[in-house]
Amino acid sequence: MNRRYRKTLIAGNWKMNKPLTEARPLLDGIKQRCSKARWCEVVLCVPFVNIPLASRLMKGCRISVGAQNMHHEVSGAYTGEVSAAMIKSAGVKYVIIGHSERRQYCGETDELVSKKVRLALENDLRPIVCVGERLEQREMGITLEVVTLQVKAALDQIPAGQVRKIVFAYEPIWAIGTGRTATVEQASEVCKEIRAVIRKKYDARIARSVTIQYGGSMNADNAKELLGQPDIDGGLIGGASLDPDSFNAIVQAANQ
Ligand code: 13P
Which pTM was predicted? Predict the structure, then answer.
């Protein structure tokens, strides 16, 4: 973390969990525990159907609501899809783009991610762009190359003035939902590289203003050490965001 230059951001990604009946007690539990965090921003990226409820419950408190995806076209005949303008009008501030599960199961490409980032910004939404390598790519020693390409694609056609609104989340795919966290050195190295890519494309001032999160089995036990690294400005939390106490422990680690 480096609060002098950028925000610390802890975002929960509920993924495809919690129907409305279960969402309410979880939202209440998180609100009770986490709404006093002063030094870090807290976001809950909930399923689409939970967005109106989350927006209503979090009104007036410091917790923001996020979406987990949006469509890459503005509107039209795309049955079953949800647009940027729709989530914006439902009270969403952040939107996860290019999560590895969408890249893997829904065929999302870097081109699609790039379109979505631009459309999110046009709709005054802050994209949380996920990047990260597969296990075999790490074993081949090409992690930094893979992540660099993903970051460059996400920044394609983004003017300098918009870059600080983008959050990057480094999520090594082998660490997601596996209980296997990247080491502090591995996570730091990639987050630092992401900042270097931004610096080379824009400049040092812009690069140091961008929030870069780590995600992948972050929990109450490892959060403090990861967040203690200068280039890791927050976390994108899956499993642990479904339990108010675990999530709050991470928020408190970021609130130091
Ligand atoms: P876990 O925290 O469950 O590993 O999930 C990470 C993630 O994919 C967040 O987007």
Answer: 0.97
